[in-house]
Amino acid sequence: MELELERELQKHFRFSTFRTGQKEIIQDVLNGNDVLGILPTGSGKSICYQLPAIMMDGLTIVVSPLISLMMDQVKEMKANHFKKVIAINSFMNFEERREIYRNIHTYKLLFISPELLSQDFIIHLLQRVKVSLFVIDEAHCISQWGYEFRPDYLKLNSIIEKLGNPPTLALSGTATPEVQADIMTSLNKPEMIKHIYPMDKPNIAFCIEEVENDQEKNDMIIQLLKKYNIPTLIYFSSRLTAESFTRFLSEKLQGRRVGFYHAGMEPMDRVMIQQQFMNNQLDIVCCTSAFGMGINKGNIRLIIHYHIPLQLESFIQEVGRAGRDGKSSVSLLLFSKSDMLLPNHLIKSELPDAKDLSNVFGYLRDLTLQDMDLPKDDVQIQNLFNLNETQWRFLRYQLEKHHLIHDNKIMDYNKTWEDIYQSIFHVINSRVKLKISKLTEIIKWIHEDRCLRDTLYQGFQPTHSGAEFQCCSNCGFTWSEWTPEQQEIESNLGLNWENKLKKLLLLDI
DNA sequence: TTAGGGTTAGGGTTAGGGTTAGTGACGGTGCAAACCT
């Protein structure tokens, strides 16, 4: 068995040895166990399901949060001469999708979103093939997105059951013990075998600066970026500010290539900015939290937070994109007292409040009394109830869970309505409370006097390595002592046309 | 009396991604149309 695994790895991926954690996870998976694997990004998480998928009979299903991640995976595997892999999404046309459904039994590996996987038709289709392994990639999304933003993540447990309870593998790069427990509870698999590996970054120095206002933030950033010409990400909690700051930087830093990135942009523009940054054709990207998942660029040297993330988990994920190559990198978080308004607003806008909830129940009751269904169009419902998209999605999930609505039919009015109201009201309250406490946690960390590295990681893992370079602003970090490797002017400069062509072709296999 | 510092209030803002209808596959049964003698 031992040697056999290495032989399979060599045969299919041309690696002679496994990286940390891979083999242990794969062995447990092949033995039919449910496994939770926390491996740092860039450590080859995907091998953990790709190799079992090849070796096992039947189909491996991989739930992935982003279509772009699915595409990357399929492209990579096909480049590795593995052809029995496919991703389904709603952008494919009818014919393409029908072709996949017809040939579903010929694939070994299927990438799919939780939303598509929640559709009855897809479940019926997959019930006809043997599902050998069920994988949740970026499994922290269950905890981070499932409760409000993408409730279909919470339906995975019932989907796994409908598929005959295949062995389940949940993978993530960052998950606190709290998030790990949340994943297992949500999947209804309390007995998962855990393989947890440290994700602290010894090569990143943590720096926090309190300022009076945004003007001071701007001055400080300009001063820094004038000194350092290095691949830099600046995180914002506002799309508009990210855009306007990009213009500001372009003005102040002549010759520096600056771009912005957020979820409100055209998909083509997003791909372009990401590619340019990856290929060192952009120096600085001003972005929202949309930027990052699946970005594998080794030489990001500086991550600046212009606004405070809503939780330490997000901060760690965003900061973790620096210094993947192991070289000295810095995280700088800027904050002023007035910054508290923004995260508070974001938390509130995610969930309906008490007034919204009683409004909705009133409307629903009126509709049943008139023997009417909910409108078919969700936008119409949102307008009717005066909720935003996320609030209504959260509420729809809750109402469906309590069987008060099904599709667009509303349950007849009876005395259980009051219990359901109370139950949803309770969920909202505890979610808001939890989010506020997470925000409080990061605020507390920002005001910490002790070592920032120690206090940041203490909730995430039992121990962590010390700093490899400078530690943090509480341990005497100084900018004057920081001399990062400066960026080469143009990454392709050293390549002749033949190598450039090879590089291009490799990128597009 | 005035410049300057500190505080507060008020205005309008605010992240994240997927999806939308149709679709597959199989065997058994019942029935009607087509074909053969």
From TrEMBL:
Pfam families: DEAD (PF00270), Helicase_C (PF00271). SMART domains: DEXDc, HELICc. GO terms for molecular function: helicase activity. PROSITE patterns: DEAH_ATP_HELICASE, HELICASE_ATP_BIND_1, HELICASE_CTER. Keywords: ATP-binding, DNA-binding, Helicase, Hydrolase, Nucleotide-binding. Gene3D superfamilies: P-loop containing nucleotide triphosphate hydrolases (3.40.50.300). Residues 26-193 form the Helicase ATP-binding domain. It comes from the Bacteria. Residues 220-368 form the Helicase C-terminal domain. This is ATP-dependent DNA helicase.
